[in-house]
Amino acid sequence: MHKYNQVKLSITDYIGRRNLQVGDAIPSQSEFVRDCGYSLITVRRALSELEEAGIIERHQGRPARLAREVFPAMVNGTILMLQLYHNFPSDGQEVASMEIYLRERGFELRAKSAKHPSEDISEACRGCVAILVSGWITEEWLKRIASEKLPVMIVGNSPVPGYFPSISNDYRQATVLLYRELRGIGCRNIGLFMGHRRFLNNIIIQQGYFDALAEAGKTPRPEWIFEDKCPEIGGADLHGLNHFLRHCRGCDSLIGVTPELHSMLMFQIFETGIRNQLKLGVFAHPRFFKFPFKNVIPMTFATPIFHTAAEWLLERLATGDQTIETRLIPPEIIRP
To answer: Are strands 166-169 and 152-155 parallel, antiparallel or unpaired?
Structure first.
């Protein structure tokens, strides 16, 4: 666990054990440095993340105060976060967030990355009450996970529905929604910017685009669809995108629902000098993603997928629910 995550847990435990109420002042940074034994830089970063999570409020010249009720850390069980990968493991950003989220609700998080179903995951599963699974999910992996006989929640689109309950962002509806929004501001020749089709989300995004075209009475034009040919997460077919942007004649707007590729798209739009010619409908994080030009319709999803999955999993554990269903998180347009 990163040091600043340990500090965050120490702070929330401190608040819970002392029964501080919403609006009460919390200790100063110097007090946490003294009591927890961490550096000032680590404490500042931890407090910043607690502020972003809405747990504390800070205002210039005033003590930080509790913004949301927290409870003492009572461990009701351990949940395994199993992150499956094809070539490279996850950077672990979701793990850091989920540690705090689950600890607030009385659960410990154990994280494991795995590449092949032949790997031994039984040791990681030992003592756990449930498993959250994300990443490169295959039918072989689903069979392997089922052998552990634990409650499971799939985070993301499952290639084989019916094994476990799953929750995913509604990428199809997001694409349709962005298409409608672009038409609403006068765009008529709307193209698609998508990632490699080896990823299930991109197949769903393309189907949503085709559905939106049919709804508008249009037929697909291959020259207005760009599929990134790099099959790796975080990869980029820069040459292909540059060529596409220079030759998608008549296209007045683009939809891009694949967040991993947006920085590449923005850079290439500036490089090709067409930033004032194309309007964009894209996925964006409402708090952190800042667009460098005005012709953008930003969209997000109603709730964070990992937190939503964890909340549903804990609800199922509490009620004993064993039904298998799929839930979709709806998209939302970010409006000024």
So the answer is: parallel
End-to-end alpha-carbon separation of the chain, Å? 37
Instruction: Give the alpha-carbon dihedral of 170, 175, 179, 182, to 10 degrees.
Output: 90
Strands 65-66 and 56-57 come out as antiparallel
Bin 64: left if φ > 0, else alpha if -120 < ψ < 50, else beta.
beta
Sign of the Cα pseudo-torsion (42, 48, 50, 53, in order):
negative
Q: Which two tokens stand for residue 145?
A: 């996970």
Instruction: Report the length, in residues, of the chain.
Output: 336
Q: How far apart are CA 1 and CA 10, in angstroms?
A: 13
- CA 138, distance to chain mean position in Å, is 20
Q: What is the full per-residue pLDDT of the chain (336 aa) written as tens digits?
A: 455 566 777 777 777 777 788 899 988 888 878 876 778 888 888 888 888 878 889 988 888 898 887 765 555 789 999 999 887 777 667 887 788 788 878 888 999 999 999 888 999 999 999 999 999 899 999 999 999 999 999 999 888 888 899 999 999 999 999 999 999 999 999 999 888 888 888 899 999 999 999 999 999 999 999 888 765 555 567 777 777 877 777 888 989 876 655 566 666 665 555 556 778 888 876 554 555 556 788 888 999 999 999 999 999 988 889 999 999 999 998 876
Paired sense of beta strands 279-283 and 166-169, if any: unpaired
Strand order in the sheet with 326-329: 107-114, 77-84, 128-135, 152-155, 166-169, 326-329
Give, in degrees to the nearest 5, the angle at Cα 15 between 58 and 43. Answer: 55
